[in-house]
Design brief:
Two copies of one chain form a homodimer.
Chain A (H helix, E strand, L loop, with lengths): L6 E5 L8 H13 L4 E6 L1 H8 L9 E5 L10 H4 L6 H10 L5 E4 L3 H12 L9 E8 L2 E6 L9 H19 L5 E5 L10 H12 L5 E6 L1 H4 L6 E3 L2 H27 L2 H4 L2 H15 L7 E4 L4 E4 L6 H16 L2 H10 L3 H12 L1
Parallel strand pairs in A: 1-2, 1-4, 2-3, 4-11, 6-9, 7-8, 7-9
Antiparallel strand pairs in A: 5-6, 5-10, 10-11
Chain lengths: 350, 350
């Protein structure tokens, strides 16, 4: 595997039904991404056993034997000291430049802690962020930070906006993404100090970005912005509120139909309508939270994802690796000095 | 109107189609609450004209003529200086103890500013909060603060929990409400400092409260708690995310059905199922954000509400007035010294 530009390393042992789910996901993703090679870290015997069902995988996968595993209850402070786990080794492959991205369905805190320690933040980026692609009325949007940083400064938020802008261009194919800061009002004086300052910074900066100001949470789902920026606490609250409400409504529709025998007769007629909604709102299609801002890409699959869900996380990683996402961020940041912009704001505000 | 225990004052001129909508709402609410009397503040000619449709209203309404009106674009700093508006006069009736609560569909910022200035916070309550009743899987819950305070201390959050607990008992009829703090994780060490401190305070206090710890945003809609407590920024983000997603999904279902001719045939069969969902999730049923923590109750109806929606806000006010909500909070607080509890926490943490 000489061309590591298109190599993804995979933690085969993370998640609820590993390595079975991981190998099933690899089988789907390998067919969809014939240009990508995979380094598979995990228990060689178990991994090979699962691969028997997909013999073609041997052509694109290299198995790297690791007996130890990071468990869900392990603390970040412990896992960063054990170099022998499949997760640690999979991430270290990115540090060693043998792969461009790592995908794991294991312990989130552990994945973040090891990724941060081994890959380090990109120069000029102060804090990495968790990003996800989400569905809105007419397509998808990029949302960050979803929980890596509970509190954020204006500079942090501005950096997230820059990374989100690149992600929307590269991964969603939006030519000129509309970038917005999540806030509880549209007026300039509304919300928190750091959000207002970040807005000033993005407006005054020389960035080539379509910054549209503030977005309110109820506007997100209607596609007003392609990139929604928040601190990790607020982003996590918005994400989980959206997911919880979508789940509630799906459940209510199911229940209401189940308890009305008459409505069973209507279901066949609704087949295409229901199929269309599922196709847009299916959470599996949005699996794979990306940890961005590091020298390498780290992607977290949901621990309970099935093979198809895991393949979506692998596809996301493949897309960004193909677009050389990390170097694109580096280049973009070379032309802008956020610290300088933030200094201007500082003098203006006080 | 000698017994002002059951009097509600109404700003007839607030909202998009006032006073028509307000009078329509009064007509519905008056029938449902024959024990309540209303003081109606607004342009006497217009109000009387609208009342022609509902002559029985004259028995329970006293019209107080006010020519001036608070407009949507008026700033709080202006409106608190003009005593002649219908909104100011309606709130002042509560200060003068002529009414126990005020309901308005006008400018939110103005309503909050005048209410705060005239009614003042209850002794021992540091900050008032905006509260709403929301639908979950099996019933309703109380959520606060929804936007009155962008940043909150642990003491503020604990006070919101106390007020929310009383609201759930009095207005929702829950005997022993489960009270939770909104956070991004269930573990004790997760989230923001002030939330963790508030949790400590509520655990250690002598309050007669079923405090169940942290709740995550996706758990809210499934009825895990009867009272959800957050700072105003976070609460507003969660509320608007929930509302936006519910609106998106309703729209998607409608669209999907509209664009599939075949599915039209299924609709009659689904009539009862759809009716049941609308009955639970209809936003009109949850109209009326209450401003609590003041010496008197101030209720804000949505500016775009129709007559039925406005009547829901009036019903909420009537319920709480009947239960003597403000005095219940005062009595509850007499037995607890939150400042003392917070001192203990302070020494423990630092």
């Amino acid at each position: 595997m000489s061309d590591n530009n298109l190599v993804i390393s995979v933690d085969a042992m993370g998640g609820d039904n590993s390595p079975r789910i991981v190998i099933e996901g690899l089988a789907i993703a390998a067919k969809k991404n014939p240009d990508i090679k995979f380094l598979v870290f995990g228990d060689e015997v178990k991994v090979k056993d699962e691969m028997k069902k997909f013999p073609f995988l041997h052509k694109v996968c290299t198995i790297c034997n690791c007996i130890e595993v990071v468990h869900n209850e392990d603390k970040p402070s412990q896992v960063i000291r054990n170099k022998n786990t499949s997760m640690y080794q999979a991430i270290d492959a990115v540090r060693r430049k043998e792969a461009k991205a790592v995908v794991s369905a294991g312990n989130t805190g552990a994945l973040m802690a090891i990724s941060k320690m081994l890959l380090k933040t990109i120069q000029k980026i102060h804090r990495p962020a968790i990003v996800s692609f989400m569905p809105h009325r007419h397509g998808k949007y990029v949302m960050l930070d979803l929980g890596a940083n509970t509190e954020c400064s204006a500079v942090n938020l501005a950096e997230f906006a820059i990374m989100g802008n690149i992600l929307a261009k590269k991964a969603l194919g939006v030519e000129k993404p509309k970038v917005a800061l999540l806030n509880i009002g549209a007026e300039e004086m509304k919300g928190k100090e750091e959000i207002r300052q970040a807005a000033q910074m993005l407006k005054n900066s020389s960035l080539n970005m379509d910054f549209i100001g503030f977005i309110e949470p109820h506007e997100i789902s209607f596609g007003k912005a392609d990139v929604v920026v928040a601190d990790g606490f607020t982003g996590n609250v918005a994400l989980k509120s959206i997911e919880g409400t979508a789940k509630l409504m799906r459940g209510m529709i199911k229940d209401a139909v189940k308890h009305s025998v008459l409505s069973w007769f209507g279901l066949p007629f609704l087949f295409f309508a229901i199929k269309k909604i599922s196709k847009t709102m299916n959470p599996k299609l949005y699996n794979g939270a990306m940890f961005v801002g590091l020298n390498g890409l780290s992607v977290k699959s949901h621990g309970g994802a099935d093979g198809f869900g895991f393949s979506v996380a692998l596809n996301n990683a493949a897309n960004l690796v193909r677009q050389d996402f990390v170097n694109t961020i580096r280049n973009e940041l070379e032309s802008v000095d956020l610290d300088e912009v933030s200094q201007d704001i500082f003098y203006e505000v006080y």
